[in-house]
Amino acid sequence: MMLDVEDRFMIKNWHRKGISISEIARRTGFDRKTIRKVLDEPLVPTHQSRPVQPYKLGPYIEHLKNRMAGGVFNASKLYTEIQAQGYAGGRTQVRSYVQAFRPVRQPDATVRYETAPGEQAQADWAHFGLIDHLGHQRRLYAFLMTLGWSRTMYLEFTVSADAGWWLRCHLHAFRYFGGAPQVVLHDNLKTAVLDRSAEGHIHWNPRYLDFAGYYGFTPQACQPYRAQTKGKVESGVKYVRINFWPGLHFTDLADLNRQALVWLDRVANVRVHGTTGAVPFARLPQEGLPSLLGKPDYDTSIVSYRHSSSDCLISYDGNYYSVPAGYHRQQLLVKENEQGELLIFTPAGDEIARHRLADGYGQHVIEPAHYQGLSTRRAKPAARQAPAAKAAPGPQVDAPQVEMRPLSIYQALAEEVTA
Question: Long-range contacts of range 193-197, CB-CB < 8 Å, 24 or more positions apart?
Answer without folding.
Answer: 193/221, 194/92, 195/92, 196/221, 196/224
